[in-house]
Amino acid sequence: MMSSQFFSTRELSELCAVGETTVKRWANMGLIKYHKTIGGHRKFKLDDVLDFINKNHIRVAPELLERLQAQKRAAEALDLNTEILLVRGDVEALSEKLAEYLLGFKKSEAEALLSKAIERIPSFAVIFDQMIAPAMHRVGHLWCEKKLSITDEHIITNMVVEAILRAKIRYETSHQEARAQGVSALTMLYGNLDGAAPKGERKNPSAIVCTCPESELHEVALLGVSLVCESLGFQVRYVGAAVPFKDLESAIEEHQPEIVCMSITNGRMRAPLYRRYEQFRKFLAKRGAKLIVGGQFLGETKSRPIQADFRAKTCAELEQYLRENFDVSSATREANSKTLN
Ligand code: B12
Questions:
Q1: CATH number corresponding to 6-60
Q2: What is the model's pTM?
Q3: Among 125-129, 154-158, 255-259, 324-328, whose mean pLDDT is lowest?
Q4: 3.40.50.1970, 3.50.50.100, 3.40.50.280, 3.30.70.2740: which CATH number matches 203-325?
């Protein structure tokens, strides 16, 4: 429902919590514009639906209304060329587009592009590894070459984080709705997947804590990691960046996760931090929790190898590891093959 720019009579009746006959009556009375398909079915444009809801003070759940408004903003912000790239699922070109928007400080376009990409490309691993990471690496290069100021780099990162958080909230809302209806969140978002629930032993999805170590502020990848885990049916406890190890340990005691995912970007881990990391790793091992570590400069400090149960360079590697070692939902796998074929 609601992933396109058009509504059927049934979808509109569900949105407004009325019967289909009422919707037909509204349409016949001219209260809401529509057109008829060759088959004779009424179709309502998103713009007209929002207009109708506004003018007639129709009560719609706030999160649904926000989602519709976001869809409208997205539709308005993107040019035809970008729409074509989205339809083709050309992530390389989409990544270039994202970088172009970010470097041009085009916030609504960047946000629209990310939200549409999440709608069309049902794999967070693909979106983060192939679209967001290359765009942000380009930002990093420009900053290194002094072609971008620190302030601009901060503005751009905030734009990305904000856009991802909006998409994350949207995804989680669908997740909750999906749980209530007994289908997968991906089915809710994309409407065309078989919503397999986590099977086997893992009827209650196990918890994953997502974090960055103390003094690590780079958080964008961690957001991707958390979304990948969520989309596989895990219960994610997002602790966030730069968390002191002692607080992290309290969080572990509280949530008893099966896995901890940690993102490390800064290349040099100083000796005291490294020792604390090792202590934390042993703390987890004693509690039977697995530690998965990833990040672009992982293993750069040859003298102090960062040990973990699994070390990943990409979100795709994480996804593969989780699929091979845990009982996860099959929804994304099917989605991936649909997109990448
Ligand atoms: C944005 C940014 C910042 C922001 C971060 C804000 C935020 N909210 O995240 C701010 C401005 C705070 C910042 C600060 C600094 N930054 Co900075 N930053 C960047 C920049 C431009 C983008 C990072 C990013 O968002 N990448 C996008 C993500 C999605 O890509 P990714 O990190 O590669 O992650 C992918 C994989 O690595 C993997 N992955 C990552 N983590 C994990 C975890 C798991 C479990 C798994 C499975 C996979 C995985 O999956 C991701 C998707 O593919 C990079 C440039 C770059 N090359 O990345 C520099 C960069 C990382 N920063 C750098 C530096 C030097 C700094 C500072 C030291 C600068 C300073 N002098 O103050 C500080 C350090 C702050 C700190 N204490 O952490 C250097 C790091 C060099 C090094 N070898 O350590 C870089 C590379 C810039 C450069 N070219 O020199 N930075």
A1: 1.10.1660.10
A2: 0.80
A3: 324-328
A4: 3.40.50.280
